[in-house]
Amino acid sequence: MALPWRSTALWLLILCFNVQAAVDPSKVRKIPLRSHSLSSPFLDSEISSRFFEFGEDTIVRTDQYIRLTSDRPSQDGWLFSRLPLTATNWQIEVEFKIHGVGNLHGDGMAIWVTEQRASPGSVFGHADKFKGLGIFIDTYKNHRPGTVFPYVSAMLGNGTESYDKDNDNKDTELTGCSARGLRTASVPTKIRLTYYQEDSFRVELQYKAADEWTDCFETGALKLPPVNYLGFSAETGELTDNHDIIQVQSYNMHISEVWKGTESGDRSGKNRKGKGKNYDPNRGRQSGGWAWFFLKLLLLPVIAAGGYVGWTMYRASNRGSRF
Ligand SMILES: *[C@@H]1O[C@H](CO)[C@@H](O)[C@H](O)[C@H]1NC(C)=O
């Protein structure tokens, strides 16, 4: 008898979960994230940066770069944000340069959006069995027949699975792309990561010409751990290269058209002009607000029924114990 009401609620629930199916770029406002951006001179004081930390073989040349590894054997270095990335949707653009004098070179570098931070390890100089996203710019082919290198790929680590180093991420990758010429490009090389929690994760590269972005890959929605740090790492073995970070620009990609959630009733967009008015780093949690509301609505009769049964049984057993 309660069936029609229930199916309506269910339908609404499904609707709520699917509202943000695709992101309209014209509705996105890019808000710079200072805490996750870096540029020369990189440091605030003689030796440290307020927002980033670095270690192992990493060196900083304040007028030029942060060098994760130098063009020498057996180097590894890392650079990590001190604060977690709290934006629900974000974009990270990195200018980097991989270069060296030898004929053979390696091994490459990684960009991390992971729960782990500042933990040296075996995957391009940082910890294996990571939780979160690893994006690898692999300049040396271990064993991956038929694939052109440099090869850029991603892995979504679950905290227990190991990166497939022997086959250059073949067994563990989400997806990837070849970027022939990335290492010897005549223009500044860049990578851009764009993440929309409910929608997609996209990687683009710039290495063919200045201001020309080449699509590397795009995936569907990815679920990241609740706390993530932005990091970079690189390593050399027998083969060597300089792996330099030149600039990092990060943005909170704020979707301004929020008709669901806390801004009740305001669908006109009238109140959306105020500077930073809609800025809310916790929006991700609130976007589930309606879904939660309906879920609770759905659960209410169940809880009420359970409570009634419990109360009746309690009464019955109380009565029983008296006899
Ligand atoms: C992580 O992924 C691996 C391989 O798919 C799987 O065997 C393992 O159970 C997963 N671990 C967790 C904690 O989900």
TrEMBL record:
Q: What is its main location?
A: membrane
Keyword annotations for this protein, in alphabetical order, are: Membrane, Signal, Transmembrane, Transmembrane helix
The name of this protein is: L-type lectin-like domain-containing protein
User: Native species of this protein?
Assistant: Heterodermia speciosa
User: Known InterPro entries for this protein?
Assistant: ConA-like_dom_sf (IPR013320), Intracellular_Lectin-GPT (IPR051136), Lectin_leg (IPR005052)
Q: What's a GO cellular component annotated to this UniProt protein?
A: COPII-coated ER to Golgi transport vesicle
This protein's membrane topology, according to the annotation, is: Single-pass type I membrane protein
Name a GO molecular-function annotation.
Answer: D-mannose binding
Q: Where is this region: Disordered?
A: 261-282
Name all L-type lectin-like domain ranges. 30-253
A single Pfam family it belongs to is: Lectin_leg-like
Q: Which residue windows are transmembrane per the record? A: 290-314
Signal sequence span is 1-21
The protein's location, in the record's own words, is: Membrane
- Please cite one Gene Ontology biological process associated with this protein: endoplasmic reticulum to Golgi vesicle-mediated transport
